[in-house]
Design goal:
Number of helices: 9
Structural class: alpha+beta
CATH class of the largest domain: Alpha Beta
Radius of gyration: 23 Å
Distance between the termini: 51 Å
Order of helices and strands: HHEHHEEHEEEHHHEEEH
CATH architecture of the largest domain: 2-Layer Sandwich
Number of strands: 9
Strand content: 15-25%
Low-confidence stretches: 1-7
Number of domains: 2
Helix content: 40-55%
């Protein structure tokens, strides 16, 4: 990082957020403390400190013990830690299978995880050696109703939940081929369950097709997908089924490796 980057970071620093972060670090180091102790040790005004603490308490970031009058970090941090661990665990377990798929198919592949009720997040990517390839950046968020990736997961949700999502999460048409009609999407979900993977033809970019297959947890619920995007000529009708079945086999291997189970 350059000095200019540091200066820019300081320029955009928000004092209230800075004070909140300092309180987090203080409670991490001291476990429990009263508001007065926190304010004194961090050189904060009592009113400012209490306002921050009560706001954090309201949202579950800190707990307040009435008897001791002390604050401690709240359980919501456990949820954050669990999410991070799950992400890292899935990446770690899935990566060898993704690499094997790339070596055997010559296609790049991405790993996507459901991060809330209507979004997928690209959390890993393995690229092929081909000079011509479609790049999907890690950190890309994908609406669950959009493209092959979203529909690959959507197809294995309970029917009522899937229909509610299809009817509530709008799809932005990126090309004339983008599937946006709820009835068409719901009909496609049946086809996905029948073949085991989702297919998209030029929905994000004309001339680029996609395939995606789901990953399931121990309860048999879909938690993510693996997906490929390539030129229409690469995923031609004659080769589409071959690559689709190979991708689904790989997603099933990942499912088993994380202790999950594909639906019957």
């Amino acid at each position: 990082m350059s000095y200019k980057d540091v200066d820019d970071t300081k320029r955009y620093s928000v004092p209230a957020v800075e004070r909140t972060i300092r309180i987090f670090h203080y409670l991490k180091a001291n476990k429990r403390a009263t508001g007065a102790e926190i304010a004194k040790d961090l050189s904060l005004t009592r009113s400012n400190c209490y306002a921050i603490l009560k706001t954090l308490q309201l949202h579950g970031f800190v707990l307040f013990d009435i008897e001791s009058k002390k604050y401690s970090l709240g359980p919501i941090f456990l949820e954050f830690v669990r999410t991070i661990v799950e992400d890292l665990s899935l990446i770690h377990v899935a990566r060898p299978y993704l690499q094997n798929f790339v070596e055997n198919s010559g296609l790049s592949v991405v790993l996507e995880q459901r991060v809330n009720f209507n979004r997928l997040l690209v959390i890993d990517r393995q690229d092929c050696a081909d000079d011509v390839r479609v790049i999907i950046s890690i950190g890309t968020r994908i609406p669950i109703t959009h493209s092959a990736s979203g529909r690959a997961l959507l197809a294995y949700l309970p029917s009522r939940e899937a229909e509610e999502l299809v009817n509530s999460v709008s799809v932005i048409p990126l090309t004339p081929k983008t599937m946006t009609d709820p009835a068409e999407i719901i009909d496609d979900l049946k086809k996905i369950r029948a073949r085991g993977y989702a297919v998209g033809h030029g929905e994000n970019l004309e001339g680029i097709d996609a395939i995606a297959a789901p990953i399931f947890d121990v309860m048999g619920e879909p938690i993510g997908v693996i997906a490929c995007a390539a030129t229409t000529s690469t995923l031609s009708e004659g080769r589409l089924e071959h690559f689709g079945n190979a991708l689904r086999s790989t997603s099933d291997e990942i499912t088993v490796a994380i202790g999950g189970k594909p639906p019957k």
